[in-house]
Design a protein that fits this description.
There is one protein chain. With 695 residues, the chain is an alpha+beta fold. The protein folds into three domains: 241 residues, Rhopdopsin 7-helix transmembrane proteins; 144 residues, GAF domain (Beta-Lactamase), CATH 3.30.450; 144 residues, Histidine kinase-like ATPase, C-terminal domain (Heat Shock Protein 90, 2-Layer Sandwich), CATH 3.30.565.10. It has a five-stranded antiparallel beta sheet with strand order 5-4-8-7-6, sandwiched between helices. Strands 10-12-13-15-14 form a five-stranded mixed beta sheet. A three-stranded antiparallel beta sheet has the order 1-2-3. The termini are far apart.
Amino acid sequence: MNLAALCTLASLALLAAVIAVHLRGGARPQRRLFVLAALVLAAAHASILLLLLSRDSGRALAHARAILALFAFFPALGIPFFAAFARADEGERLVRRTPWFAAAAAALAAAAVVLPARHFVALIHFTPDGALWGLTFTAAGKAAAVYLLVVNVVFLHLFENTYRAATVADKVTLKYPFLGILTSSLVNVAVLSRVLAIATFDRDAVAVHACGVVALCVSFLYASLRYPLFDLRISTPRGRPPSIVSVTVAALYLLSLGLITTLARILGLPYDRFLVTVLGIFGVFLLLALLISGKAKRRLRTFLSENFYLQRYNYRKEWRRYAEIMESGSTIEEFLSNVMSSLCDTMVARRGFFWTNVGAGKAGFYGFPKEEIDRELIEELLRRTADKSVVILGKPIERPGEDDAGGEDWSWVRAAARLGQGAETRGVIALGEMDLGRSYTDEDEDFLSLVAYRAKLALDNTIMEERIIESRQMESFNRFASFVVHDLKNTVGMLSLMAENARVNIGSPEFQRDALETIQRSVEKMQHLINSLNVRKLPSTISKTEIDLSSLVERAAESIKPLAAQKGLLVDSAAESGIRARIDATALNRVIENLVLNAVEATPPGGAVSVSVGRAEDVWARIAVRDTGPGFDPDYLREHLFRPFHSTKKEGLGVGLVLCKSLVEAHGGRISIESAPGGGASVIVMLPALPAAGS
C-alpha cells in the first residue's frame, strides 16, 4: 500500500471517530448536519481508497464518478452547516438555506452519476507495476474543480465571520476548529489549483488532501472533547458588514496562479518545477527580510515563545487581551466565564473556577460542568491565600475529616489566587493541573497575580456602576413619588376642608351639592394619580383636543373658592370669551389648580387672588394667577426656581412649580414668575391659542 492510500486510510479512520463521537452528543440540528456531512466525506474517502487500489481503468472510472458525485453533493450539507455553526439563529438558517443548497448540489451530483465518466476524466495513468498513478481531467473536470474551489472559499468566508462575531471566550473554543478548517481549505485550494493549472490529480495530491482532512478531524475531535463546541450561541451584530478577507485572499491567490501558469507556458518549464522555483525565491526573500529586520526577528521570537514554549507569555499581548476580556462581559456571569476560560487556555490548565461573592456567590467554570461550588473548598482556598494572594500548591488539598471522604474531590486544585484582602476580598480563582505534564512556575504565579488584581478592579467597577444605576433609579422613583404626593396632598386638603365644614353645614342643600362635586373631583384626581402610577410617566401622556380655554380656567378657579373662603380670601376670575386652544384638559386643569392653590396658601387672611385669561400677540393665550402675598425671595428666584425639592413653604415638597412647568412645556408653552418688591406675585402661563373666529 502506497503513501497516498495510507494517508487516505488514516483520514477515513478519523472521520469514523468524529462520526462516532458526535452521534452520542445529542440531536441538535447543527450536530445532525455535521454528522451527515462527515458521512458523505467518509464515503468520498472510501471511494478514493478504492480508486487508489484499482488495477483497471473501468473500475477506476466508476470510483472516480462516485468521488465526483459525493464531492459535488457535499456542499449541500457543508454550506448550511457553516452558515449555522455556533450561531444563535441556527434553526432559521438551516430551514431557510438547506433546501436550496441540497437541490443544487443534488442536481450536480446526479449529473456526475448520469453523464459518462469520460466527460470528466480524459486519461487514467497507471505505473509499470499496475498501480494507479493519477487522472487527467477534461474541461468539464476542471469546471468541477472550480466548483469545489469556490465551495472551500465559501466555507472559509462563513467560518471567518462566525469567528469574527464571537466573544473572546467563544474564540477560545473556536480557535482549534478554525485552524483545522483553515489548514484543510488551504490544502484543498492548493490541490485544486494544480488541477486547474495542469489538469492532473495524482497520488501525491491525494496524500496532501488526506493530510488536510486529518488536520480537520483532529481539530474537531480535540475541540469537541475539551469544549462544549456545539453549545455555542453567537449573535451577529446587526448592520455590521461581513468580512471578505478570505474571499480577497482567494482571489489574489488565483490571480497569482494564473500568472505563474502563463509564465511557465511562455518559458517552456514544467508547472511543478516552476512553482517550486517561484516559492523558493519567495522563501529566500522572506528569510533575508527576517535576517535584516529587527522587528521581524522580535515577532518570530514572540511566535516561538507563545506556541512552542508554553511557560513563556507575551505579557503585552496577553495583558491587552485580558483588558478586552474584562470589558467585554455585559453581566457578572459572562465576565467570570470569559476570564476563566481564557485564563485556563493561556496557562494550559485543564480545569478551574472563578468564584466571587458579588451577587450571591456567582461563579464561572472551565473544563467541567458544575452548578455550584463547594463552600468548604472556597473557605479553604481563602484561608490558604490569606497571607499571600497567590498560592502554588505543592501537594493536593485533602478534605478534612473522615466523614467527608465521600464528598467532592479537592485534589485537582493546583493553584489559587485571592482577589483582594480582608473586607475588600472579591473572590478567588482556582486552577487545576496543567496539560503536557507541566508544573506551575514563578512566571505563572506572577501572571496569575496580575490577572487576579485586574479582575478585582473590574469587579469593583462593575459593583460601582450597579450602585450608581440603583441610585439613579431610586432618585427617579423618589422624584416621581414626590409629584404624586404633592397632588395627593392638595386633594386631601380639599377633602379635609369639606369634612370640617360638614359639621356645621351638613344640612344645607347648597353645601351638599358642593360636597358631592368636591368628592367627585377628588375621586377623579385620585384615579388619575393611580393611572400615572401604572404608566410611571412624568408628565402624564398628553392627549390634545380643542377646548374653550376660558371656561376651563374659570372652572378650575371655582373649585378652589371654598378653600379660599374658609381662609378668608377672595378668589376673583376674569376670562376673555372665545379663547380656544388644543390642549389636554386634565393636564391644564392640574396646572391651574396647583397655581391657584399655591397663591391661596401664600396669601394671608384678608388678601385676594385673581385669575385672568386673555390673548397676547394674537397667537398666545395668556393665563395669569396673581396674589397679594409676600412674594418670592430674590435668592429663590435666582437659584432654586423650577428646581425640584426646593420650596418656599415650610412643609412644601418643592415639586408643584416643576410639575406645572413640565406640563406647560409639553403643550409647547412657557411659564414665568413676576414678584413685586413690595409684595405680591404673578405666575404667567403662555399657551399656543387657536385663531379667533373671523380672523
